[in-house]
Specification:
The protein contains five helices and no strands. By secondary structure, the protein is an all-alpha fold. The chain has one domain (7-134). The longest helix is centred in the N-terminal third of the chain and has 31 residues, at 8-38.
Length: 136
């Protein structure tokens, strides 16, 4: 499928996955930089080498998976929808509790994550997106 034939909803889902993936990779890199600059700080149960390493790996791998999904969606690859849907569902699992957080930064982040996840899910299941992914 050429770029002009691709449904705009599928393109929008690809862009959303791209933004989410880039944000997660950027945050993983930010954590690496902060640990290199300041060391591991915070409460002992969550601030040890294993926990911080796991956090970094989770953000980088999840971000890379969303970037891969974005590439697949942009090229109308059927496999990419399942990867993108899984990413959006995990985004909802993380974002919904953040909406009820006490801090305004966390609350805004939660609202953004939830809105992007719902928007991407709607885009991924429009009839035109489904046709484009089935007709690859």
């Amino acid at each position: 499928m050429t770029a002009p034939e691709m449904p705009r909803w599928l393109r929008l889902a690809a862009v959303i996955a791209l933004v989410e993936g880039a944000a997660l990779v950027a945050y993983g890199i930010y954590v690496i930089v902060q640990v290199a600059r300041l060391g591991i700080t915070g409460p002992a149960p969550v601030s040890n080498v294993q926990s911080v390493t796991l956090e970094i790996v989770i953000f980088l791998v999840f971000g890379a998976a969303l970037l891969l999904a974005a590439w697949g969606l942009w090229h109308a690859r059927r496999w990419s929808r399942s990867l993108a849907v899984l990413g959006q569902l995990i985004g909802l699992v993380v974002g919904v509790p953040l909406v009820g957080a006490t801090g305004w930064v966390e609350r805004i982040a939660g609202v953004l994550v939830v809105l992007m996840a719902i928007g991407a899910l709607v885009c991924l299941f429009t009839p035109s997106s489904t046709r484009a992914l089935v007709d690859e």
